[in-house]
Amino acid sequence: MKDSNSSxxxxxxxxxxxxxxxxxxxxxxxxxxLYLMILPGFVYFVVFKYxxxxxxxxxxxxxxxxxGIKDSPWVGFKHFIRLFTEPTFAMLLSNTxxxxxxxxxxxxxIPIILALMLNEVRHxxxxxxIQTIVYIPHFMSWVIIVSITYVFLxxxxxxxxxxxxxxxxxxxxxxxxxxxxxxxxxxxxxxxxAGWSTIIYLAAITVVDTQLYxxxxxxxxxxxxxxxxxxxxxxxxxxxxxxxLKIGSTLELGFEHMYLLLNSLNRExxxxxxxxxxxxxxxxxxxxxxxTVGLFKGLVGLILVIIANKLAKKFGEDGVY
Amino acid sequence: MGSINSLRIAEIENQKLxxxxxxxxxxxxxxxxxxxxxxxSLLLSACGGENAEPQTNADGKPIISWLNILHSASPPxxxxxxxxxxxxxxxxxxxxxxxxxxxxxxxxxxxxxxxADIVSLTILENSSVRNALKAGVFxxxxxxxxxxxxxxxxxxxxxxxxxxxxxxxxxxxxxxxSRNGVIIRKDWLDKVGLPIPKTTAELMEVAKAxxxxxxxxxxxxxxxxxxxxxxxxxxxxxTLGSYxxxxxxxxxxxxxxxxxxxxxxxxxxAMDYMKELYNNGYINQDFAVTAKKDQQEGFAQGKAGIYVxxxxxxxxxxxxxxxxxDDMDLIMVNDITSTGKESDRAIWSTSNGVGxxxxxxxxxxxxxxxxxxVLKFMDDLMSEEIYTLMTYGIKDVHYSLEGNAATITDTKLxxxxxxxxxxxxPNENGYDxxxxxxxxxxxxxxxxxxxxxxxxNPMYSLESATFSEQGSELQKIITDATYKxxxxxxxxxxxxxxxxxxxxxxxxxxxxxxEAAYQAVQNK
Lengths: 321, 524
Hints:
The complex is a heterodimer of chains A (321) and B (524). Chain A has 321 residues and is mainly α. Chain A has 2 domains: 1-59, no CATH class; 61-314, MetI-like fold, CATH 1.10.3720. Chain A has 17 helices and no strands. Chain A has helices at 2-15, 21-30, 32-50, 68-71, 78-85, 87-107, 109-120, 124-135, 142-153, 159-166, 178-206, 210-218, 223-248, 255-261, 267-270, 273-283, 287-314. In chain A, helix 5 crosses helix 17 (287-314) and helix 11 (178-206) crosses helix 13 (223-248). Chain B folds into 3 domains: 2-47; 63-175 and 357-430, 3-Layer(aba) Sandwich (D-Maltodextrin-Binding Protein, domain 2); 180-348 and 457-461, D-Maltodextrin-Binding Protein, domain 2 (3-Layer(aba) Sandwich), CATH 3.40.190. Helix content of chain B is 48%, strand content 13%. Chain B is built from 21 helices and 16 strands. In chain B, strands 2-1-3-12-4 form a 5-stranded mixed sheet. In chain B, a hairpin with a 2-residue loop joins strand 13 (399-402) and strand 14 (405-408). Chain A binds chain B through residues 33, 36-37, 39-40, 43-44, 47, 64-67, 86-87, 150, 154-156, 171, 173, 175-176, 263-265, 267-268, 278-280, 282-287, and chain B through 3, 7, 10-11, 14, 17-18, 21, 27, 31, 34, 38, 42, 103-104, 107-108, 110-113, 126-129, 131-132, 135, 137, 230, 284-286, 288-290, 298, 303, 469-470, 472-473, 476, 479-480, 482-484, 487, 489, 501, 505.
């Protein structure tokens, strides 16, 4: 709603655009109703997103809550130096990047494939029920999903291990071995989120002009050909947009999911920025240091989004802004 | 919340606005309204946190708020609370924090200043709690204690142990000095024909027999010796460590050299012992990810026969097993050693008997008069009458009394209405009334006996800035390495490398600081 408003505003602005602040003001005055409609959204972002950013200042202090920002001692880049020189930093960065890469390579294409496949299903009832079934896991919280996994994979009486044992194999300690953490993490994400993301692509597919398919039919294109030459190019902008957004959240893997999976034995591959911030900041009370980690994470995300957006534009796509 | 609502109102107003497009007058009126409502809501949300608190309730009783830790599943109902309020002539308002999330909740409360008249600080070693104490957020109470009959009784030792930099910032919660030991299924012992173990080697034999000789007699090998949880301190590991002579936290040599417990020989022996248990399958294989609740339930379901933890857990375990394992018979052992010599008996002490501090923030307890009011309340809580209420409940409702022996008559009701209070008692020692349950009497006796052999943490009340700041972060290195060693993913060299990493990342600094602090106290 906000976007359409602003585009209308800019459109009307363009009609009598001349240079100079006076004209700008006049165009604002002429469209004040529209500006008024933006106001709630604008206020929301200022109050809840921009105003709190002021708190980032504490990453340059030894912040103590009872002294407040005003009286806490300033320490310059102490926390940044600690972050970049601590051995944990390399571990955090590599863990985060590896998980992100896995998510991008393995998880990202799955909803697209799923959407294409569902689109080819002719039976409407069947299609709808499949669609519903695959997106329901999205509404479950990570606590539930991780608990279910725990019950299934436990060495002491877990179903999967009992089956492995029944077939004469050796029990595998999925929950405590570092090598199983990443596959488990990615599979859980796929189970929970694949269906949900599919909906977005399906929505994009429904607006594809049917004439294109008819034309392709005339040319004798097979279904696979139509998928490749009509459907996929049509949803390309959506894919690119989602990809850029995804890249922006590279270091933002989500706290809850990983925190639930972590234990002493898989920490070396599982500790990521989000979980580290929680333990350092909230559990151990190092508020300044964890703010520093958060700031670093945010900056990297910002830079990545800008780069991805530039690249997208270079290849002739729209980008997100 | 307020601002969201007014935003929604603003949106609705916006839509209305369209219909009145022609009328300029109307427009301005609405615009003003919207601007006003938004500004108003901002103001409201800005000052929402600073309610002026009334000191007394409608009946003229002083209101005492208490940010307290909840060790059971749900907060207590009002029955016992009303009784306590009646006896102390106060209106108590609890905010409960679940024990599992106490660190983050206490820290956020401290950081945001949303405290209460009384705050239960059970994690004194946590850096932000320590910083808050040192920064003077809470009242120093030592000058006032002697004015109150029960608070006066707090021993000088206890006051010392609970002090930071020589200052006592609250009422210490007095617990037993050392409550840990081994709980074994006696019926299984009899079945496999083994005596009560006195040494760690005999304990291993018992674990082996429980695993291999089908003690529950169901024809399949589905039991293990030990059942443990993912806790190197309150689980089996630290207690076993004591049996091998590991110091508690830190060791100080004659010439004032400080070394961490994990550099001791006993620590490695305890790891080897755990490793042997794990490799032979004498312990639940997933102990590294097992929660306390699952551990206790597993024991109650007859999955294992050896439980290491607080000795008074025996009663809970037996309660849990009712209807599941009715022939369960438990025996508690607190005199195991690795050598079999009485002189080597040792058991680590849970924070030297200090369960934490009940502290009073200056932001809530505004002046001396109010502080004395709260201290009076604390004093009342330590009286025999209220101790009884908080421990056993109301007579003939929750328990029956015979002489000084109390018998819980309705366990379910007791769990709901009384149990949550029991962990908030300022003092747990030295009362006449006691539980009539034989297991409880026995565990109380053994815990009392433990005091003689308790290994205290010599650094508990000393200061190290680095430990306060990074101690728990660094401890993770050791905890992770310990688990890996036990599960065979790290050899001794690898473990020692981890210790070196610990030293390099700040451990050396901690040691130097502790040595200095120790020296300073010795020279006094």
